Amino acid sequence: MSNNQIDKLSCIxxxxxxxxxxxxxxxxxEDEILxxxxxxxxxxxxxxxxxxxxxxxxxxxxxxxxIKGIVLTHGHxxxxxxxxxxxxxxxxxVYGTKLTLGLVRGNLEEHGxxxxxxxxxxxxxxxxxxxxxxxxxxxxxxxxxxxxxALAVHTPVGTLVYASDFKFDQTPVNDQMADIHRLAExxxxxxLALFSDSTNAExxxxxxxxxxxxxxxxxxxxxxxxxxxxxxxxxxxDRIQQFIDSAFNQxxxxxxxxxxxxxxxxxxxxxxxxxxxxxxxxxLDELKDLRDDQIALITTGSQGEPMAALTRMSRGDHRQINIxxxxxxxxxxxxxxxxxxxxxxxxxxxxxxxxxxIYESVSGVHVSxxxxxxxxxxxxxxxxPEYFIPVHGEYRHMHCHAKLAREVGIPEENIxxxxxxxVMEFSNNDGQTTGSVTAGRVLxxxxxxxxxxxxxLRDRRLLSQDGVLIVVVTxxxxxxxxxxxxxxxxxxxxxxxxxxxxSAATRRVEKALSKCEQNNVTEWSILKSEIKDxxxxxxxxxxxxxxxxxxxxxxx
Length: 556
Hints:
The radius of gyration is 28 Å and the shape is globular. It has an 8-stranded mixed beta sheet. By secondary structure, the protein is α/β, with parallel strands linked by helices. The chain contains 15 helices and 25 strands. Helices cover 31% and strands 25% of the residues. It has 3 domains: 279 residues, Ribonuclease Z/Hydroxyacylglutathione hydrolase-like (Metallo-beta-lactamase, Chain A, 4-Layer Sandwich), CATH 3.60.15.10; 153 residues, 3-Layer(aba) Sandwich (Rossmann fold), CATH 3.40.50; 102 residues, Ubiquitin-like (UB roll) (Roll), CATH 3.10.20.580. β10 and β11 form a beta hairpin.
């Protein structure tokens, strides 16, 4: 079929809508599929023991032969972190800018997946032809990581502009402005649909320039007499460069700690995105030979992660750095929703150890990488799309963004607020939601991918709330009890102080088993059920708790 006969394309978000994280968009034309981004989400508090959340890729696995490539907007984990899990299933090329692919390379190496044939470098301002129907143009935008791009996906049906994470910074640290001119040209040429960042759709005005942070950091470095410890996102290379510049101006050496920070600094330096003067970077072991006013430390832990370097310093169990009076600690990041309590605990502990802590809510040490309302309106007015789809936000963010779109003249019927899996079909004269595909979340726990579901999470939640009681009974081949029952408690009550309760519970189990013996009940499943029922109702009646009860029956 020739291009002039193609009149329909479909867009399916598998993540990144009605949520912040696990960004993944599928674009389909005829028998070809293009994937935009493949990100993770970090687990919320109710996902006990879970390491990562990735999109459900069932639809992609079913259609793997149709997939022509993956294009990446930038190098944040919520856009590239699920790539290893996707590439284990699908062998296709991955297109991105230099820093983005540098970070992807490190991620794939950790999973033993690195094949340079996967990775296709594209410069901002250039295009990549992917399959027969997708010509993808990379358009520079500003964000909290270098080399971020919006994508213009040129197809026989029309042009899609995908601007997932962006802001318009008029004074960027790296002097690389967003390509507003090209966005305006696309608007003049005609854009079928715009997918745009909704993270800050509730914030009025404009997002401040990254250079504002640099000015604040300069002041902090010039005023501090002792050691300076700065925590930030490891991917915010421009921010790290400003820390290094301020340290250099104050004749301080710089050490780096935290695995992701060390890796990203190394990658960014090798690729030319960080300028570190010779001899300025030192190992942690070398700090003991320097005066406090000669030391600057760049670390992970801005989100209060339990095992991150700054968090361990705040607890006093970092192997090489002990916080002391006179230290200045700068937390140069905002707390991701859900992390506020962890960040607050870390800051409190740092204060208790004598540090002077400077953090976002009381200073200008962080600015967002996402556009606020006036910039979102500017993107809409530059691109002038026929259809508008808010992305990268919870439902309330997308709702606010849709309101902004109506204010600048997008008809309400041309705005789509989606859930993961919704199928949007666009043609030259129509756009509508036509159905849905399998979508949702897959939980990663250690090396297990998708093997933890609602039942396991329910059990973990129950264990965390009320603990567990293990009832051990030994029976002979005739079903008669020869030992036990013995009750073992973990996370339920302290046995030494609850002897009476445990003794009463034991008698309750004995009574239930005696009844089974009298009725010649020897089936293990029935015995276990009787133990659970008898003990569960007794415990709840006594202390109104519902511990997990695990009967263990052994035969001799």
